[in-house]
Amino acid sequence: MSLSVGSAEALFSRFKKKCVGVVGDAFVDTYVDGVIERLNPESRHVHLLRVKKNALRHRSGGAGNVARNLLTLGANAWLLSVCGRDPLGDRFQH
């Protein structure tokens, strides 16, 4: 199936008129940036990573990622999930 530019624009513009509820597991994905320096000598399948400064990045995952993508497309999205009482739960709520 091919989609022309005009058809794609029309399709995406319809998101701005939608209100979408997302219900599901939401969590925080954590990414670490670094450089693989070498393989672990004790286990050749494990890479040793030199972590860069300010290397941690947090993003919403699971249903939270779906809601975030809908917002990016212009929809009015809301998320219903359970949130833990811990530092990452606090971060997720803000």
Structure, described:
6% of the residues are buried. A two-stranded parallel ribbon has the order 1-4. It has a two-stranded antiparallel ribbon with strand order 2-3. It starts with a helix and ends with a helix. The protein has helices at 5-13, 63-72, 87-93, and strands at residues 19-23, 26-39, 47-62, 76-80. The longest helix has 10 residues, at 63-72. The chain has three helices and four strands; from the N terminus they run αβββαβα. The chain has 94 residues and is α+β, with helices and mostly antiparallel strands. The radius of gyration is 19 Å and the shape is flat. Strand 2 (26-39) and strand 3 (47-62) form a beta hairpin.
3D shape = flat
Poorly predicted segments = none
Instruction: Give Rg in angstroms.
Output: 19 Å
Largest sheet: 2 strands, parallel
For the biggest β-sheet, the strand order reads 1-4
| Percent helix | 25-40%
Strand residue content: 35-45%
Quaternary organisation: single chain
- Encode the helix/strand succession as letters: HEEEHEH
Mean pLDDT score: 87
